[in-house]
Design a protein that fits this description.
Strands 2-5-6-1-7-8-9 form a seven-stranded mixed sheet, with helices on both faces. The chain has 737 residues and is an alpha+beta fold. Helix 10 (316-378) packs antiparallel against helix 11 (388-402) and helix 14 packs parallel to helix 18. The radius of gyration is 46 Å and the shape is elongated. The chain has five domains: 3-19 and 33-314, 3-Layer(aba) Sandwich (Rossmann fold); 338-426; 438-546, no CATH class; 563-621, no CATH class; 626-732, Immunoglobulin-like, CATH 2.60.40. A hairpin with a 4-residue loop joins strand 19 (710-714) and strand 20 (719-725). The protein is built from 22 helices and 20 strands.
């Protein structure tokens, strides 16, 4: 396939992309085939002279040549070249063309537009058919609404690359500069909505650069060197800063000043291009190389004649760059289309390949899991308490799953796992569960037979006091007391629970003969009638019968608070109510108060116990992550803060991008142990939302938020800010009433 055909194919793809991104509809004019390079410029911007100089210069360059494709273009280039050189050609009747010297002059302003067709040859091997367009610059004005103006805009909107021409002689006329910049932006808006990626290469060409102080070399034609082109991805301010700091401008302060003046004057145009494409470049060219001679004035403009020696600077560089960029861009468009097709095929393939997996994991396997999980949930996850019927349901579910052809062929490892699960439930044995239950029952028997291990009764609270051993035994027994009520484990654990209930009734009121009679009756009844009555149950029953033979009980043991316990409470109270140290109030005091509360009597110290419970409830609220409203009271020299709370040892992301100015508020979610990061940016410091601040402080103490309340001094810059929290932090600390 020839290069032109490849371009034609790629061009169709790129136009579809442009239209999908908001480009204009195809123009009514039938333009010739070829790569369309739009040269957009106003009156006197130097388009015609540029095209002429481009043609003549291409004859003497190594990497860029032009071959004219039609007579109209050849005639245009030839006529303008002869005028600049001061040569007039007469044609005699015999067909001979004679040249005679005439005064040099620049071509007259373009009145009738012309389509330029030529083939560009890059680096002696890449041939590119080019279509460009020369026209009256007056029709390019933003206020112009003629048919010719629409024709120009239609050509530009559907171009494969754009070069915007700007005459630096109007830099001092700000209104005209802004008007021309607006026309450039208007063309871009027609191609693609602002803020979207620019789909074509864009070049800004400063023509007649010989009028700029410091200009005079072809080396100055390209502003952004290849090694620095990443700055085109920055915003305008960073772009301007990095361009002016580049090495190419360091040795020529006069030229650096001229470049800065151009970039600042055209900032509105440059601002909408940088950051949206890497295919952007700025060129400084001169079609004459030397300043033309002013020979007079005309309506609205000065008249110039070409200099004695015409030595163009950099005129081939914009076209060479934009054609290279178009070649690269359109090759990428072809690759994008191919990648699109590959992506669609890949998605279809993944869906087809995934269907068996979705059906297996989302349907078949989940169905078997659902049956098993339902059964185990009914017995609190304890397989020992499942009945025969429940285990049969699980076996049947795994059997249905394992018999599926899909499982056998595509998921053999899961088929083997299902077989093992069937074996587990088929060969299930109660032996380990029975042994475990016997151990628990013997534990209850040990408690009943040993007075030191028995629970105590608090007369003041009218409640039984159980220690950790009692609670652990009851909890383990509850795990056995689930599932089918006809199962061995359930029936035996149920009998033990009844025994324990009778014993606790005895502890509460040892003189109650009715309880003693129930114990005697129930133990003897179970010995004669209970099914599967084990040796451990017999031992427990004997322990209960031993209660009947114990001597008459004295007063039940109680828990009393001594005077020293009350004194300890009052000491803690005085210190807590006078402290604003969160580490003490929230960290140390709760543990101390719990220890004191366990020693106090509910009958005589109910007020103190209630106060302790209230304090612990309030202190417990601080352990949870809560929202606090922080207010920036003062910040010096019009600076601003960034604040972020992260987990202990974490790094802030500064993703909120919140600047706090004096008087601003911010809501912070914090719990003890979180780190508080505070960054300050001074006035004129480049703000990176806390990432590269003027200075930063981190409070990493467990109660670091309290340290952030009040005055904060940043050590590296010696500046102090004041923060407060609505309602105060220390004021919210709990008190003991």
């Amino acid at each position: 396939m020839g290069f032109a055909k490849i371009f034609k194919f790629a061009k169709k793809g790129s136009k579809k992309v442009k239209r999908s991104k908001g480009g204009a509809a195809a123009p009514a004019v039938k333009w010739p085939d070829g790569i369309r390079v739009g040269v957009f410029g106003h009156e006197n911007s130097g388009k015609t002279v540029f095209f002429t100089s481009l043609y003549t210069q291409s004859k003497s360059t190594n990497d860029f040549h032009i071959s004219v494709r039609d007579n109209a273009t050849a005639s245009e280039f030839f006529r303008n070249d002869m005028a600049i050189k001061g040569v007039d050609c007469d044609s005699s009747g015999t067909g001979t063309i004679a040249a005679k010297p005439v005064p040099k002059k620049f071509p007259d302003p373009t009145v009738k537009d012309i389509i330029l067709q030529f083939t560009s040859i890059l680096d002696d091997n890449t041939k590119i058919p080019v279509v460009s367009y020369d026209y009256s610059g007056r029709a390019a004005a933003i206020s112009e609404h003629s048919d010719e103006a629409e024709k120009i805009r239609d050509f530009m909107v559907d171009a494969d690359g754009l070069l915007f021409f700007f005459d630096p002689k109007i830099l001092s006329a700000d209104p005209e500069v802004q008007a021309r910049a607006s026309t450039f932006i208007n063309i871009l808006e027609r191609i693609v909505p602002l803020k979207s990626r620019l789909p074509i290469p864009i070049g800004l060409v400063i023509t007649k650069s010989d009028v700029l102080p410091g200009y005079g070399s072809d080396n100055q034609a390209v502003l952004v060197q290849p090694e620095d082109e990443q700055i085109i991805a920055e915003d305008y301010e960073k772009f301007l800063e990095k361009v002016l700091d580049s090495e190419s401008l360091a040795d020529n302060k006069e030229w650096a000043t001229s470049v800065r003046n151009v970039l600042v004057k055209l900032r509105e145009f440059i601002r909408v291009v940088v950051g949206r494409t890497l295919d952007f470049q700025i060129f400084f060219v001169s079609s004459t190389g030397n300043r033309p001679e002013k020979i007079g004035v005309d309506i609205g403009r000065s008249l110039y004649a070409p200099p004695e020696k015409v030595n163009p600077c950099g005129v081939t560089r914009p076209f060479y760059w934009i054609l290279q960029s178009i070649v690269r861009s359109q090759r990428l468009n072809v690759m994008r289309r191919i990648a699109g097709y590959v992506s669609v095929v890949s998605i279809i393939w993944m869906l087809l390949f995934s269907l068996p997996y979705l059906y297996h994991f989302g349907g078949l396997l989940r169905s078997a899991y659902r049956v098993e999980n339902s059964v185990l949930s009914s017995v609190d996850g304890n397989i020992l308490n499942t009945s025969d019927t429940q285990r049969h349901d699980i076996i049947r579910a795994y059997n249905r799953y394992g018999n599926r052809m899909l499982v056998k062929k595509l998921f053999p490892e899961y088929y083997l796992s299902s077989s093992r699960m069937k074996d587990v439930y088929s060969e299930f044995s109660l032996g380990p569960a029975v042994t475990r239950l016997d151990s628990i029952i013997n534990g209850f028997a040990d408690v009943i037979t040993n007075p030191q291990l028995q629970p105590m009764y608090d007369q003041g609270l009218d409640s039984l006091i159980l220690n950790d051993t009692h609670r652990r035994l009851v909890g383990n027994l509850e795990k056995m007391h689930v599932g089918e009520k006809t199962s061995v484990l359930y029936m035996r654990s149920d009998r033990v629970f009844y025994y324990w209930d009778l014993f606790t009734q005895f502890v509460v009121n040892p003189a109650d003969t009715a309880v003693l009679e129930k114990i005697n009756y129930q133990v003897n009844f179970n010995l004669e009638n209970a099914q599967n009555y084990s040796e451990s149950e017999k031992r427990l029953g004997s322990a209960l019968l031993g209660v009947l033979d114990s001597p008459a009980p004295g007063p039940a043991p109680t828990v009393r608070a001594t005077r020293s316990n009350l004194d300890e409470y009052n000491q803690i109270k005085d210190k807590v109510n006078g402290s604003s140290d969160p580490a003490y109030v929230l960290g140390e005091v709760p543990g101390k108060l719990k220890a004191v509360r366990d020693k106090l009597s509910a009958s005589t110290n109910s007020a103190q116990i209630s106060a302790i419970d209230d304090f612990l409830a309030e202190a417990g609220k601080w352990d949870k992550r809560r929202t606090y409203t922080c207010v920036l009271q003062t910040v010096p020299d019009m600076g601003h803060l960034h604040i972020e709370v992260v987990g202990s040892g974490g790094n802030p992301s500064w993703s909120n991008e919140t600047q706090l100015l004096e008087g601003d508020e911010i809501k912070l979610k914090w719990k003890p142990g979180d780190d508080v990061h505070i960054a300050i940016d001074e006035l004129r410091h480049e703000c990176n939302w806390g990432k590269k601040p003027s200075d930063r402080i981190v409070f990493q103490d467990r109660y670091g938020l309290f340290a952030a309340e009040g005055s904060i001094t940043f050590p590296n810059i010696g500046k102090t800010v004041v923060l407060s929290f609505k309602g105060g932090l220390k004021e919210r600390l709990p008190d003991l009433d």
